[in-house]
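Before the break, one more example. Copy the sequence into your notebook; we will annotate it together after we see the structure.
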Amino acid sequence: MKYLIRFITHGAGGAQEHADKLIESESVTIGRATDQTLHVRDRRARLQHARIEARDDGLAIVSTALAGVTVNGRSQREALLQVGDEITVGANLLRILEPPPGVDAALSFELADDAGEHHLAPAWSTPVRTLAGFGKRRLSWIAAGLVLLLAFAIPALSLFGPGVAGVVRGVPLLPDDSLWLAGDVHRTHASVAAECEACHVKPFRRVPDSACGECHEASRHVAGMAPTVLGTMRCASCHLEHNEPPLLISEHQGLCGDCHADGPAGTDLPGASDFLDDHPPFRVSLAVPVPADGGTEWRTERHLLSDVRHAERSNLRFDHALHLDAEGVLAPDGRQVLVCQDCHQPEPGGARMQPIRMDKHCSSCHALSFDPADPSRTVPHGDPEGVLQVLIEYYSARLLGDDGTGNAQQRLRRPGQALTRADRDRAAAEARAQALTVAADLFERRACINCHEVTNVPSNTALPWRVEPVRLTERFFPHARFSHAAHGTTVSGCDSCHAASESGEATDLLMPGMDTCRTCHGSGIARRNAAGQTASTCILCHGFHDPDKPLFQPEPAAAGRRGAP
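Here is what the structure looks like once it is written out:
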C-alpha cells in the first residue's frame, strides 16, 4: 500500500509550504510516540492514538482512544474516509486528498489554525548552553585533554623502560598502564603478570607468536600442526588472555567449526562443525596382525566403527558373556562371580585402562600347571619355546635325579655308578617324549587352546605348535580425549556403553557408537539440546596440540602473514 503524505507548514505572512513523502506500509499510524508515522506533540493525543488503513470497502480510520478522532466535526472511533474529509487529532489537521497516479491514498498533515503552545507537550529536556561560564566546545576540549593526559600520556611513561614503569606503577594515585588491561591474566601466566613487556614486546601491537614460543618451546609444550595447515592463525586466535573469568582457551564452538565445517584445505579430514548436527561417523584404530618372515608384525589401521563391529583381530579367544555370567564361572575355589572391574582397572587418574596381563588378571583361574603331583610347578606364559624347554628340563631331572620335589624316579642312575653316554641319550629321548606329550595336552586341549589360536606344525620338529601372538588394542580413539573417571557415575555403568554381557565372541568390538554418546552429549550450542544432554563443544573431546608431531614453528615473516612477528 502506497501512501502520499503532504506535510504543510505556514510561514510568515501566511505563506504556505509543503513537502511530500511517499511511504509503503499497511497503515499510517498517528500518535505521540516517536515510532508513529505521523508524530504529534499535542498532549491530548495518546502515544498510539489512531491509524489509517485500507479495507475492502475503502479507506478507514480507527482510534484506540476513548475520545476517538474528529471526522468532519464529529467525534468517532472508527469511520470510512472519502476524498475531502477533514480529521482533527488534538491541534493537528489531516485532509484526505485525491491520490495521484501510482499512489493508493494521499493525505495532508498540518497544525490547525487554533493550535497554541499550551496544547503542545513540553520538550524532553532543555539544552545546556554554558556551564560555569564555559561553552560546550571549550568543555569538550578540556575533557578530551584530561582523557589523553590521564589515560594515555601518563600511563605511556611505562613504555620508556622497566625502571620508569616501576616508578609509575609504584605511585598509588598516579594512573599507570594497568588502565589498559582488559582483565587479569590466567593463573598459568601469573609469574609474568606484572611484566606486560614479556608478551607485549611492542607497544600497541598484537602479541606475536615468537613471544609465546620463547617460553613454551623451552618447555616443549607447543606442539601442533604444520604452519601450512594453520595458515594465518596466531596463538592468540585460540588462546585468550585478560578475560573474566580467566579462560586461557576459547571454548566457543566456532573455534574449530569455522575451519573444520568443510574440512581444512590440504587435509583429508571430513567436515565437522557440531557434535549433534554435523559430525562424521566414528573411526577406530585397530591393531591388525600381518604375516611376516619368521613371525607376525602388527600395524595400525583406521576403519569406520560401523564397518568393524565384529572385526577385532587381536588373535585372542574370549567370551565376555561367559565370564560375566550372573551365576558365576567355575574357578579352582568354586564358582566366582566376576565384574568388569576385576580385569579392567583404570590407570592413576582414571582416564584410561591398564593393560590386561595374564599373570595379574587370568592366572588365578587359568593356571599353567602341568603335573597334578606338583601343582605349584607352571610353565611360562607367552613363550612357546620356553614351555617345551621347561618341560624337558623337568622330566630330565625326574629321570636322572632329584628334581627338588622329592619325587625323583632315579630309574637310570644307581649309587656309585656313572651314567654311560647311551644312558644319557636314552634319558634325554624319554624326557623329550614325555615333555612333548604334556606339551600337546597344554597346547591343544586344556590350556593354551582356550585363549589362543594354536596350530599343529608337525614339520617343525623343534616345536610342533604355533601359537598366534596376541595384541590387544589399547587406544581405539587415539585422536580423542576421554576419561573413564569422568563417566563413572551411578547412571553410567560399564554396560551402558560397552555391551560386554551380550558378547560371545572376541571379535566383537565393544566400543560405543555416536548414538550412545549423544544420549548425554549434545550440541556445543546449549539451546539445541534436548533435556539431559550436556552442551559439548569440539575441545571437550579433541585437543589441538599433538605430542607426536614436531614443535610448531611459525613461518618466516612474509607478506600477508598475520602470525609473523
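The longest helix spans residues 421-446. Residues 554-565 have pLDDT under 50 and may be disordered. Try to locate both features in your own notes.
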